[in-house]
Protein: Pimeloyl-ACP methyl ester carboxylesterase
Organism: Phytomonospora endophytica
Amino acid sequence: MKGEPWWPLTGLPESTAQAPSAATWPDLDFDPAPHYERLTIPILCFFGETDMWTPVDDTVRMWREAVDRGGHEPPTVVRLDGCGHEPALHEGGPVHPRYEEALLDWLDARAAAPAS
C-alpha cells in the first residue's frame, strides 16, 4: 500500500516500529462489507472522480458485491467529475451541481415509490 499515490496522505508511519499501538487505531482494519450485506434500505453513494482518500473503483465494487450477497437492491452510484473526497468542485468551493440534483432525484424516486 505504501506504493499507492494516496499513501502520503494517510498520515500513517512509514514502518510498524513507528506505529502507535493497535488500541490507538482500533478500526484501522475494519471491514464494512459484512455490515453492508445486512442493509435493507436503498443506498446512494457519491464519489469524487479524483478522490485521493477512497479507492473509488474498489469501494464501488465492494458495495455492489456486499449488497448482492445480502440479496438486496444494488446501490445507486454517482460519480462527480472534478471532485475529490468532498462533493465540492475545489477545496472550499461550491458543491458540485450534480450532487444536489442527483440527491433530489434519488429521494423523489423513492418517495414516489409504493411501499413494498
Q: What stands out?
A: Residues 97-112 form the longest helix (16 residues). The chain is about 30% helix and 10% strand.
